[in-house]
């Protein structure tokens, strides 16, 4: 009788309980990855949400700010974790995430200030 095997697993690790197929990532690498993925998710959710629900655009603006702040904090946390885990797989993603989140927050705050000036006259 033939055994059912996953064709994508290497033959040496099939059925071996001592071999783990998961990637071990440090907390710093996970925070760095989160820091650049959150602003992209925030922009996508904001664009799609505003297109679908035009009445709730303030909710999506608030969500954009919250996700950007969380992403910025994740990037700063990843930078601080370089002391513990080393700079490999942390420095570049964390830097990209901090720059993206800072840019989004800068644009959003400037847009809010401009809207406030327009409302005042």
The radius of gyration over CA amounts to 21 Å
Quick check: average pLDDT?
83
Q: In the residues, how many domains can be counted?
A: 1
Fraction of residues in β-strands: under 5%
Main sheet: strands, sense, barrel = none
Q: Ranges with pLDDT <50 over ≥5 residues? A: none
Q: Structural class of the secondary structure composition?
A: mainly alpha
Strand tally: 0
**Helix coverage percent:** over 70%
Shape: flat
- End-to-end C-alpha gap: 81 Å
Strand and helix order: HHH
Give the helix tally. 3
What can you see in these coordinates?
- The chain has one domain.
- It is mostly helical.
- α1 (27-52) runs antiparallel to α2 (57-85) and α1 packs parallel to α3 (91-120).
- The chain has helices at residues 27-52, 57-85, 91-120.
Q: What's the helix and strand layout?
A:
Layout: H1 27-52, H2 57-85, H3 91-120
Helix pairs in contact: 1-2, 1-3, 2-3
Comma- or semicolon-separated keywords:
70% helix; flat
Summarize the structure.
The chain has 121 residues and is mainly α. Helix content is 70%, strand content 0%.
């Amino acid at each position: 009788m033939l055994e059912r095997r996953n064709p994508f697993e290497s033959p040496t690790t099939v059925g071996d309980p001592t071999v783990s197929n998961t990637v071990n990532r440090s907390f710093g690498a996970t925070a760095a990855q989160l820091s650049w993925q959150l602003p992209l998710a925030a922009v996508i959710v904001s664009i799609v949400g505003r297109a679908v629900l035009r009445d709730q655009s303030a909710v999506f603006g608030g969500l954009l700010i919250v996700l950007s702040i969380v992403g910025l904090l994740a990037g700063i946390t990843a930078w601080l974790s370089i002391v513990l885990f080393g700079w490999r797989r942390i420095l570049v993603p964390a830097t990209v995430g901090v720059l993206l989140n800072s840019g989004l927050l800068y644009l959003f705050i400037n847009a809010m200030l401009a809207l406030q000036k327009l409302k005042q006259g």
